[in-house]
Design goal:
Number of helices: 2
Strand order of the largest sheet: 1-2-3-4-5-6-7-8
Radius of gyration: 22 Å
Number of domains: 1
Distance between the termini: 76 Å
CATH architecture: Beta Barrel
CATH class: Mainly Beta
Strand content: 35-45%
Number of strands: 8
Helix content: 25-40%
Structural class: alpha+beta
Largest sheet: 8 strands, antiparallel, barrel
Length: about 170
């Protein structure tokens, strides 16, 4: 009888561990590995600017908050000057962030992806691409920094070096 109870208790404990293992991996093991690997920490409050090929004025300024758990990051737009509200969920691998962004506005079906690079000076720069009902496929550059003056220099550099024009991506290969 005692042996049977011990076996039942053991199987119950193994079942609980099996159910909890994804959470243990996400919340305990991965952050430990990230710290052990001396991974990059970017959590904090920033300024951001991004440009879209179909937008006039040519860029959108906003405040943002980046939260981080191990290699997983969440970027949340705040105080966007045009009222956009979106969130990027991604992963940081060395100096590269890749992720998926999604609009948080009701009745908005706007989403896409981004690839960003963390510079040695603490700035984050890169490009994004996405789709919206109004403009179809859109893309642009994205700059994130704690230094607003550096972002203004970034915008000036990007506007002089890159030419963003509207291209009908759906018919580009026709």
């Amino acid at each position: 009888m005692l042996l049977r109870m011990s076996i039942n208790m053991l199987s119950f404990i193994v079942g609980l561990i099996g159910l909890a293992s994804p959470f243990i991996n996400e919340w305990v093991i991965q952050p430990y590995r990230f710290k052990r690997d001396k991974g990059r920490r970017i959590a904090g409050s920033y300024y951001a600017v991004w440009h879209t090929n179909t937008q006039n004025p040519p860029q959108t300024w906003e405040s943002c908050k980046i939260s981080q758990r191990g290699k997983k990051i969440t970027y949340k737009s705040l105080n966007n000057e045009h009222g956009f509200d979106y969130e990027l969920k991604g992963e940081i691998m060395g100096n590269i962030i890749s992720g998926h962004w999604q609009s948080k506005l009701p009745n908005e079906n706007v989403s896409g992806g981004a690839i960003l690079y963390c510079t040695t000076r603490g700035h984050i720069v890169g490009f994004w691409v996405g789709h919206c009902k109004k403009n179809g496929v859109t893309w642009g550059y994205w700059g994130i920094s704690t230094d607003k003056k550096a972002l203004k220099k970034f915008v000036n550099h990007m506007q002089t070096k890159l030419s963003f024009t509207s291209i009908d991506m759906e018919h580009l290969f026709d």
